[in-house]
Specification:
With 135 residues, the chain is an alpha+beta fold. It has a single domain, classed as Sufe protein. Chain: A, CATH 3.90.1010.10. The protein is built from eight helices and three strands, in the order H-H-E-E-H-E-H-H-H-H-H. Helix 3 runs parallel beside helix 8. The radius of gyration is 14 Å and the shape is globular. The chain starts with a helix and ends with a helix. Belongs to the SufE family. This is Fe-S metabolism protein SufE.
């Protein structure tokens, strides 16, 4: 998957339809999440589409997240969020300005409110997970 700065640069030059396609492509590139992990316990509340997030602690103390959605554009948004936190230490995740990092994508104005309403809940869940593992 491309880096967040590369994606941000490409996104800035695209029209609305191409931005949707880019998000869909990012979602398709997500690491597959086994269906067995898509449970009520991993479901992110408050999302219009179903979104699941499953954290794992990697050797070396970094957090790795598997995530999925039943909506293609939502999966792309998930991919953007994960690019800001994936395989980082819990303390780094807690210190990360995820919202600020995603601000240049202007998702709230580019997408319908239904598509973006769950983003804060997903970020909160990731932060709660990081807080459990923080030193």
């Amino acid at each position: 998957m491309a880096t967040l700065p590369d994606i941000r640069e490409e996104y800035a030059f695209l029209d609305a339809d191409d931005r949707y396609r880019l998000l869909i492509d990012l979602g398709k590139a997500l690491e597959p999440m086994p269906d067995a992990l898509k449970t009520d316990a991993t479901l992110v509340r408050g999302c219009s589409a179903a979104v699941w997030v499953y954290p794992t602690l990697r050797e070396g103390g970094t957090l790795h997240f598997l995530a999925d959605s039943n909506a293609a554009i939502t999966k792309g948004i998930i991919a953007l969020v994960l690019l800001t936190v994936q395989d980082r230490a819990a303390d780094e995740i807690l210190a990360a300005d995820v919202e600020g990092t995603l601000a240049p994508f202007d998702l709230r104005n580019q997408l319908s409110s239904n598509r973006t309403q769950g983003i804060p809940n997903m970020i909160a869940l990731i932060r709660e997970t990081a807080a459990r593992y923080a030193n």
